[in-house]
Amino acid sequence: MPKKLILIVIDGLTPAAFELAADDDRTPALKFLAANGAYTRGVSTFPSLTPVCLSSIATGAHPDVHRVPHLVWYHRDEGRIVEYGSSFAAIRAVGTRRALLDAIFNMNEQHLGSDALTVFEALEDAGYTTAAINFTCYRGRQRHASAVPAVTRRPAYAPKRFFFYNLFESDVTGAPLAIFSRSAGSIDAYAGAVGRWLVTRDGFDFLVHYLPDYDFASHVTGPGVSEEALLRSDAAIWALIEAAGGPDEFLDRYAVVVCSDHGQTRIDGTVRLEDAFDGANVIVTASNRAGMVYRTEGTREDSRQLAARLDHEPGVDAALFLEAGEAIARRDGEELRFSRRASGWQTSGDPALLPHPGAFTRAWAALHNPNAGELLVSAGDGVEFDDLGGRSHLGGGSHGALAAADSEVPILTVGLDGAQPTSITDLAPLTLRHFDVEPPAYTRWLADAA
Ligand SMILES: [Zn+2]
Predict the structure, then answer these.
(1) pLDDT at 172
(2) What sections of 260-397 are H helices per DSSP?
(3) Which of 32, 72, 339, 382 is deepest in the core (most CB within 10 A)?
């Protein structure tokens, strides 16, 4: 039997913050794990926003396969905006209940592509027991009734052991309520309490322990200064170690991966992306540091003409679109063309237009998502796009762009064989191989493309 495996995802944790914590006595769990593991700086997907990233972690796919395009996007078949939660104002703009149903249920049941296989589905098909705490890309085989019928009676299909912000609880753990006073860190505290219960009962083969409070704090304060939040995330991890009987016993029982889903960039300016498309008859979905532009029946300009509207917008790092089988990145009227060939990336134009980590693979995959806009926009240094509710994180932190600060993530593996992962899309196949389960074919495609 392979060792049981725990995947810990600290949302928005930058490599720099992780590397400091790895040498800090105030974060004993991360320090202990770092001292016993192998560490790399890895890369996220694009847009580097949580619904997209967690779908990549769960499936080992980029958005061309998993099909979750952005935090906010236009659903062409249903003729409506899907908003997973850019801000309370943006949620109100599309209707609170609709946004919650999209974020909790529809993303997993409808938006997440049927060609993608989640790590929960693959492992439970092979007879393993999987568990997830608060992880928003949770699609699995087991039906769970709502724990709060007053809020929703809709069931969720998820891992066998499934804990989701008190809304779904497959087992009675006595963990405190997670959904209130978020700034006090109660979501990570809930995850710690549920995790302690699961470890104490040895109740899984594979657990995803998702800790969102650090990202929440980083949006408010900016990257790298949310130390207090990281102490709480660390405490939620330490709860697992204690429940196993101590550090040595913990590592005897479990292999561990610690990672984040994306980074964070300090924000000192905002752009209302819609303003650039006045009169163009397009639908713009912008949030954080990424935007999408969807053509409609009334749109007369082609994708290049739409991209050219951003030529003199200093807040835009790159406008991306497809043309005749090639991807094109445009900035200030300059273009870089790239396409994937069996022999590797074929490019023409100035590669300095896309100097970001994994940019070709990530931009290519984002553009080939059928749910994406015809035009994708990656924000420039320090710039955020206003969301549907007109909100931003000015003075704080944000992410979503192709830039390194948004895109680099810490990846620590403890007790795992094989090549060290370098992308968040490596984590699902790494997990499956650990359990002797063959990863989906699309993950081999990715390994070749890198
Ligand atoms: Zn975030």
Answers:
(1) 86
(2) 303-308, 359-367
(3) 72
Closest CA to 179 of 154, 148, 218: 148
Query: 160 CA distance to ligand 1 centroid (A)?
Result: 27
Q: What is the pLDDT of residues 193-239, one digit of tens each?
A: 999 999 999 999 999 999 998 999 899 988 877 788 999 999 999 99
Distance 299 CA to ligand 1 centre (A): 32
- How far is Cα 282 from Cα 35, in angstroms, rounded to an integer? 51
Ligand 1 ion local residues (Cβ < 5 A): 215
- Ligand 1 centre distance from Cα of residue 262 (Å): 8
Cα distances (Å, whole numbers) of residue 84 to 255, 270, 382: 32, 21, 23
Best CA proximity match to 10, nearest among 310, 215, 217, 266: 215
How far is the centre of ligand 1, averaged over its atoms, from the C-alpha of 215 (Å)?
5
Q: Which amino acid is at 1?
A: M
Cα(126) to centroid(ligand 1), Å: 33
Closest of 256, 165, 245, 166 to residue 212, by C-alpha: 165
Please give the distance, rounded to the nearest whole angstrom, from the Cα atom of residue 191 to the centre of ligand 1: 18
Burial readout 237-267 (b: 16 or more C-beta within 10 A, e: otherwise): bbbbbbbbeebeebbeebbbbbbbbbbbbbb
Q: Do residues 292 and 376 make contact, with C-beta atoms less than 8 angstroms apart?
A: yes
Residue 50 Cα, ligand 1 centroid: separation in angstroms?
A: 6
Distance 403 CA to ligand 1 centre (A): 15
Q: Full-prediction pTM beyond 0.90?
A: yes
Please determine, for residue 257, whether its predicted confidence score (pLDDT) is greater than 50: yes
How far apart CA 231 and CA 226 sit, in angstroms, is: 9
Cα separation of 232 and 181, whole Å?
A: 14
Cα-to-centroid distance, 437 and ligand 1 (Å): 32
Q: How far is the CA of 395 from the centre of ligand 1 (A)?
A: 14
